[in-house]
Amino acid sequence: MAEFLWKTIGHHFNFWVYIVLLMLGLWATIAKNNLVKKLMGLSIFQSAIILLYVSIGTKEGATIPILDHHGHIPSESHHADVGPEIAAHGVANPLPHVLMLTAIVVGVATLGVALSLVQAIYRDFGTVEEDELLREIKSLHPDG
Amino acid sequence: MNAKVSATIAVIITGAVLLYGVADFPDFGDPTSPANAGVEGGAPSASLHFINESYKETKVPNLVTSVLADYRGYDTMFETVVIFAAGLAIFVILRNLRSDDPLPEPLPATEDRFIDGDHQRIIVGTTCRIAIPLVQIFALYVVAHGHHSPGGGFQGGVMLGASFILVALGGNLRDALARLGEDTFMRLASLGILIYAAFGLVPQFLGRNFLDYGVLEKIFLTDGPEMARSHSMLGVEVGVALTVMSIMFAIFANLSSRGEMRGGL
Question: Is residue B27 part of a domain?
């Protein structure tokens, strides 16, 4: 049993963690009644996606994707006679980092927009609970 | 059925499908995975080109910066525009310019108020006073040194914005707005985008593509297009930092004062 679990989960442990995080976020987005809690769920969901992308760029034993001041890959000196493909294993993949770097900041900005919408809803309706909002809206439009 | 029960069922089904799909993923930290090394027999992955060639093409040791500001210049520019648009959206949604409420009375001056803010906030105020200059200097370092060490416009901009938010949290929003007023930060946010767009438009006037920095060697008088790319990246990072700083503070100022921009938290 333990061997089976290690075979299944062992090398994909990171993905299992992200999927659990993603499930938490999705559940909060669907099931919570409070709009602010829904937004927290969305943020947790987003964190799971960001972690997934960053972990895709990981290479075992590699360092950060910053070269030394002569443009050499830091660990290149250890195996100088290898080709560029093997030397590239010495630094992490920079592309997922770039994509997530912008995604994090844009995520903060869009979360700000969402929170300001919630605040405008609170200003106009006096509540951020979804069921109360639906009742208010129905009473405003009795014909449907 | 109860909404929570159906939500739980939907989430469990989604999670199970994802967990099943993950079994085919490459191992964690595998350097030969398709994302890291490309597909066998196919074209090499873009990241291999970035790792092996980008220093020769841009003279920037930080690969993340060179990919962010040069190879993916369009993406970064319009991400910055998205952030600016988010700031404008918050302004449109929340900002209350025609408030009928009278301005809140300023706090009565007492002998204890030798530090900005309430006398109960001496510890917080003093700590913020010590911390804020250090945060700002480090943020400037992160922006300016983003070529050679971890950092860049987004990170430094967020730190600069956080330093102004710290002024508002340690004292009050009025103090923060006195240092970075609303018209100032909206102008700075637009200026950041314009700086970035200028680095795109100038090469176009010199007969190259939008954001093709290499041709700027004629303006920067560098020895070769590589150093021109390096200098241009610093320029666009400064633009990104200005926009991100302004919009982060704008989000906080609008949200914490319900669009009144007066009392705040």
Answer: no
The count of domains in chain B is 1
> What CATH number should be reported for the domain holding residue A38?
1.10.287.3510
Structure tokens at A134: 């639906």
Instruction: Give Cβ neighbours of residue B52 (< 8 Å, ≥ 6 apart).
Output: A84, A87, A88
Tens digit of pLDDT per residue, chain A (144 long)? 777 777 767 778 888 889 999 999 999 999 989 999 999 999 999 999 999 999 888 888 888 888 887 777 776 545 555 666 677 778 888 889 899 988 898 898 899 999 999 998 998 888 889 888 888 888 888 776
Is there a domain that residue B38 lies in?
no
Instruction: Return the axis-axis angle of helices A13-31 and A35-56, rounded to nearest 10°.
Output: 160
Q: Do B36 and A59 touch (CB under 8 A)?
A: yes
ipTM of model = 0.85
Full domain range(s) for residue B202: 60-98+117-265
A89 within a domain of the structure (yes/no): yes
The number of CA neighbours under 13 Å toward the Cβ of A118 is 19
Residue A23 within any structural domain of the chain: yes
Amino acid at B226: E
Provide the residue range defining the domain that includes A48. 12-58+81-140
Coil/strand/helix, residue B113: coil
Q: Does residue A63 sit at the B interface (CB-CB below 8 Å)?
A: no
Point out the residue among B3, B8, B18 whose CB comes nearest to the CB of A19: B18
- The SS3 call for residue B62 is strand
Question: For chain A, how many structural domains are there in total?
Answer: 1
| Mutation choice for A interface testing from B2, B4, B28, B60 by most A CBs within 10 A | B28
Q: What is the 3-state secondary structure (H, E, C) of B72-103?
A: CHHHHHHHHHHHHHHHHHHHHHHCCCCCCCCC
